[in-house]
């Protein structure tokens, strides 16, 4: 039997994940009182369900403090379980609550951000126990579903650390969620080549033109070396997502080429990897 406890920050997507697991054949129960968790485990052991998901979160109130002991008792009894923790950046959670006009469970009549901070503190013990942590801050529903299927349907290897390689154009502003920003406007610009101006870094002609520069090759070597050095240190500090932004003037040629190239160099590493081209469709 596969028993999954789905938990995490309110607004991070727990209800959506439970629906995804239900569609994948899991028997799902949400917001079960903590006092009934051990009894629930005994019941499912007597049943025929081979895949079960249980949603637990801050709505359990003061009883949530008992969950640590309950989980330890369950493990000591020989019953195995997995914990999936859904995380999300505070600013994204605040935005989601404002858009839905819902109150945070712990904010009461106060500010949402205070409730989020309090919730994070109370759930920290579950985050530390988690087998999988998915940060939904920048995930579309289809991307979240792909992650869930990867873990709980296809049984593929999953990394809790996600790297987003993002190309952008400085003329449209630096992405606000960037952790690392690199300016590649020092490279020869295909925009000024008549046959390349209307193409993008996704086209082989532009790709070859940009990579023909010795400076581009050296930049990629140094960036790859730096990322391989930095990532383990970020992970050690508890970070689970890194957004590496590479920008050129318009975000269509040089930055796109280099993002694709560095992603190829990083794909063999045991981390999750996403590639995004923010401004590639924008007009010059």
Describe the overall structure:
The protein is α/β, with parallel strands linked by helices. The chain folds into 2 domains: 2-152, 3-Layer(aba) Sandwich (Rossmann fold); 162-277, no CATH class. Helices cover 40% and strands 18% of the residues. It has 9 helices and 9 strands. The protein has helices at 14-23, 37-46, 67-76, 90-100, 112-129, 141-152, 204-211, 214-236, 254-266, and strands at residues 2-8, 27-30, 51-55, 82-87, 132-135, 162-169, 180-183, 241-248, 272-277. Strands 2-3-1-4-5 form a 5-stranded parallel beta sheet, with helices on both faces. It has a 4-stranded parallel beta sheet with strand order 7-8-6-9, covered by helices on one side. Strand 2, helix 2 (37-46) and strand 3 form a beta-alpha-beta unit. Helix 1 packs across helix 6, helix 4 (90-100) crosses helix 5 and helix 8 crosses helix 9 (254-266). The longest helix is centred in the C-terminal third of the chain and has 23 residues, at 214-236. The chain starts with a strand and ends in a 7-residue tail after the last strand. The mean pLDDT is 89.
């Amino acid at each position: 039997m596969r028993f999954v406890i789905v938990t995490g920050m309110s607004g991070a997507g727990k209800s959506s994940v439970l629906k995804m697991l239900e569609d994948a054949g899991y028997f799902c129960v949400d917001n079960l009182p903590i006092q009934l968790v051990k009894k629930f485990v005994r019941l499912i052991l007597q049943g025929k369900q081979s895949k079960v998901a249980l949603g637990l979160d801050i709505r359990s109130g003061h009883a949530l403090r008992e969950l640590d002991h309950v989980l330890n008792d369950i493990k000591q009894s020989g019953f195995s379980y997995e914990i999936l923790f859904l995380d999300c950046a505070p600013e994204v959670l605040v935005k989601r609550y404002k858009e839905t006009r819902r109150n945070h469970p712990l904010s009461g009549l106060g500010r949402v951000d205070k409730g989020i901070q309090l919730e994070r503190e109370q759930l920290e013990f579950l985050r530390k126990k988690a087998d999988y942590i998915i940060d939904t801050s920048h995930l579309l529903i289809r991307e979240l579903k792909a992650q869930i299927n990867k873990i709980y349907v296809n049984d593929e290897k999953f990394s809790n650390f996600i790297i987003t390689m993002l190309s952008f154009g400085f003329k449209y502003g630096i992405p606000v969620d960037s952790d690392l920003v690199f300016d590649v406007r020092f490279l020869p610009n295909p925009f000024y080549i008549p046959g390349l101006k209307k193409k993008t870094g996704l086209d082989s002609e532009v790709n070859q033109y940009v990579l023909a520069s010795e400076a581009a090759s050296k930049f990629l070597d140094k960036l790859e070396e730096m990322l391989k050095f930095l990532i383990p240190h970020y992970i050690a500090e508890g970070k689970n997502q890194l957004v590496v932004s590479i920008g050129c003037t318009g975000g269509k040629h040089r930055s796109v080429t280099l993002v694709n190239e560095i992603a190829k160099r990083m794909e063999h590493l045991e981390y999750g990897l996403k590639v995004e081209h923010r401004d590639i469709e924008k007009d010059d």
